[in-house]
């Protein structure tokens, strides 16, 4: 079964960050999944749900709008089950992810943006339109598919709870579709309501405003280009009920932290992973950690997908492990 290859990823204590911030910081390393990202989890749940409900017939096309990782997970799983994949990505997608999608066998189409279904040039609108006019094509629609939340509620969160022996005090993750923080947040809050669930988004993204006011801001501005997180619309897979706060970080700080962390540890953090670390540096006083806290940082993918964006192409291939794993 494909499901046995996905999940059960390590939770590693990070000595460098724990020492720097005077608390116990652990990293949930989702790049150990076959597609090297957390998105393998919702990809599997969405595909299994569609097949079980006869929304697609054998040999059909799974369609998704993705910044790359969900698209890769869907492509790998669909291919293994005898289906095809059509992935709509925005022009901001890293070349490394594009190369991986092509290598995995995806049919990709590059779109102007990922601004949501209301924008005719967006990945979401193009994906929905493609699925609507092509026979036996199904739009998994991660931004509005409840399987996105369910995947993290049923797999990611219980793993973290077990790995921390129930001692987790803080969960911090980037917010893109909202599936991870909504699913993990709900499970953790059901175990112990005092656990802090914090999201991270780029400067200019609107989800922190929505969390605070439950309305959209009166004006929209372009948000910092931190790949995989940040929105100018509220995805249906974002459940604000289980999120305590969303911090904003800028792209420049995120890039600096990624390079600094790599130089100190030899570990390449992905873009949103670096944003999570940047939030610690920017808001450490507000976070008010104590030495006995157990803080879990969510690292959804690996930095080898952002060599050109985060590391200026300065990391040599010998230091990279970019091969996706076969099921």
Automatic annotation (TrEMBL):
Matching Pfam families: PALP
Domain Tryptophan synthase beta chain-like PALP per the UniProt entry, residue ranges = 2-301
Q: Which PROSITE patterns match?
A: CYS_SYNTHASE (PS00901)
| Gene3D superfamilies associated with the record | 3.40.50.1100
Read off the InterPro entries from this record: Cys_Synth/Cystath_Beta-Synth, P-phosphate_BS, TrpB-like_PALP, TrpB-like_PALP_sf
Please give the cofactor(s) recorded in the UniProt entry for this protein: pyridoxal 5'-phosphate
Keyword ATP-binding in record: no
The family database entries (SUPFAM superfamilies) matched by this protein are listed as: Tryptophan synthase beta subunit-like PLP-dependent enzymes
Highest taxon above the source species: Bacteria
Q: What name does the UniProt record give this protein?
A: Cysteine synthase family protein
């Amino acid at each position: 079964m494909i499901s046995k290859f996905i999940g059960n990823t390590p939770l590693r204590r990070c000595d460098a960050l724990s020492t720097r911030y005077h608390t116990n910081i652990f990293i949930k390393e989702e790049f150990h999944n076959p597609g090297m990202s957390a998105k393998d989890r919702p990809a599997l749940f969405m595909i299994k749900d569609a097949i079980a409900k006869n929304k697609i017939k054998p040999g059909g096309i799974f369609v998704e709008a993705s910044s790359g990782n969900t698209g890769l997970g869907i492509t790998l799983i669909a291919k293994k089950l005898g289906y095809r994949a059509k992935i709509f990505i925005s022009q901001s997608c890293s070349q490394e992810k594009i190369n991986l999608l092509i290598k995995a066998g995806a049919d990709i189409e590059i779109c102007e943006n990922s601004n949501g279904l209301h924008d005719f040039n967006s990945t979401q609108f193009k994906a929905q339109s493609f699925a609507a006019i092509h026979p036996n094509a199904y739009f998994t629609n991660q931004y509005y598919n409840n399987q996105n939340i369910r995947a993290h509620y049923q797999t990611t969160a219980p793993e973290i709870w077990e790995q921390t022996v129930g001692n987790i005090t803080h969960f911090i993750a980037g917010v893109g579709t909202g599936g991870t923080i909504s699913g993990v947040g709900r499970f953790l809050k059901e175990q112990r309501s005092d656990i802090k669930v914090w999201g991270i988004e780029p400067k200019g993204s609107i989800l922190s405003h929505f969390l605070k006011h439950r309305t959209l801001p009166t004006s929209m501005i372009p948000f910092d280009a931190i790949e995989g997180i940040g929105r100018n619309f509220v995805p249906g897979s974002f459940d604000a009920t289980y999120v305590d706060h969303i911090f904003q970080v800028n792209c420049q700080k995120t890039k600096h932290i990624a390079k600094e962390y790599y130089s100190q540890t030899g570990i390449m953090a992905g873009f949103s992973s670096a944003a999570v670390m940047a939030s610690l540096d920017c808001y450490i006083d507000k976070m008010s950690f104590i030495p006995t806290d157990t803080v879990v940082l969510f690292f959804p993918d690996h930095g080898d997908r952002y060599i050109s964006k985060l590391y200026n192409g300065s990391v040599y291939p010998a230091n990279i492990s970019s091969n996706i794993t076969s099921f």
